[in-house]
Design brief:
The structure holds 2 protein chains of 2 kinds. Chain A is mainly beta. Classes of the chains: A mainly beta, B alpha/beta.
Amino acid sequence: MLLIPCPWCGPRDEIEFHYGGEAHISRPADPDALDDAAWAEYLFMRNNPKGPFAERWVHNAGCRRWFNIVRDTATHRILAVYKIGERPPRRAGST
Amino acid sequence: MQRYSLLSLARHALGRHRGWTPLWRKAAPRPRYAVVIIGGGGHGLATAYYLAKEHGIRDVAVLEKGAIGLGNTGRNTTIIRSNYLWDESARIYEHSLQLWEGLSAELNFNLMLSQRGVLNLAHTESDVREGRRRVGANRLNGIDAEWLDPAAVQRICPILNISADARYPVLGATLQRRGGVARHDAVAWGYARAADARGVDIVENCEVTAIRTAQGRVTGVETSRGEIAADKVAIAAAGHSSVLAAMAGVRLPLQSHPLQALVSEPVKPVLDCVVMSNTVHVYVSQSDKGELVIGAGIDSFNSYAQRGSFHVIEGQIAALLELFPVFSRLKMLRSWAGIVDVSPDASPIIGKLPVEGLYLNGGWGTGGFKATPGAGHVFAHTIAHDEPHPLARPFALERFASGALIDEHGAAAVAH
């Protein structure tokens, strides 16, 4: 069970949250210009590292706000928490 | 290979059973192989076996980072069935089921295949529609499938609670009578023994740390036991597919999650079929030892830690007890997790990767065990001919660009 530090509510039990998958995937600026391979990259291809991973969570049983964390997928240790729109702290070393 | 029979048992009894030999040699890696297979689970070992048996390629090493049978092969809930919706899936899973049916004899190793029937329960109107549609699709593909109403479900499984006021009312179920269970580690041992007898090197405690390429072609691997050159490298490493493909610069549409399971204390025979429920994320069968083997849905977050969160087990047991009130006093003995690599369409990726000489069999998500013989068989063909086996062709990585996805979320039986 994860103890997730919500940036607004503080540390809460994992069951209050919902997982949102990999963070920092931006919708293509010019979708009409994309070929099939670029669409596949945007829609389906994902980082899946064994180690630090930047991911989104939503505190749906609390403040209902989205945020990002960097978590080590090999140890479950949470390395950084930061708000939507921010970049991951460099020290967290996520891919 | 030392063949097993009543006669050999009697002969060894006279020698006080001192003459039995190990199932496979403890091979040390040689500097070069024609084919290196990464991953010594059921899929990798089956691939090596069929490469040697059907394609005459015996210069093969299977590299396993731990010991044989301790990865996902020994962590699944051993369920076998082929009742998938789409033609492409039905063909490859049915190919696998037919191989299962003759495999104990072929490998001269008792895999304890028990075709006791698999029920997939429907709890909602949409489950009913999906289940009936799938039964129809299965029959068109020559796969045995039946639709059962609640009373018929209870005749197959009397301890199931089918009362209309249950929290998860049973509105019906699909039944595949040829489905069932097999002993999972025996599958790995049986393939390892048969592959070893044909000259395949099974190298344990040998973790691949890099995949070497030159001019867009694979040249070998670096491992914890030294460098190994290879003409072809095949990845069959289940949960770690993405990590290995990344070593060759290939991105995959996979996410790795923990999938948890647990077993109860052993009890007298009480459940003689397999019961699965996609909607409430639970599936259960009773092992020959008498333990209930119970599987859950995946944990939502990405992980390689081989453990999940307790609330997933809590939800799974709550659903189990709604379906089977008779289990409420059972104690659970142990729980664990395996790492599953989940694809966007709940179908595997089998075929060539964008690096010449590099092949992938992965992305089986929560359902790879049942596919072990079939996946190994078509993957061996794909490697030997450098060309996808006809049954594997629809499962190529290119489908994510072409859009020809094979959506099996309904038949996958474990919520992704």
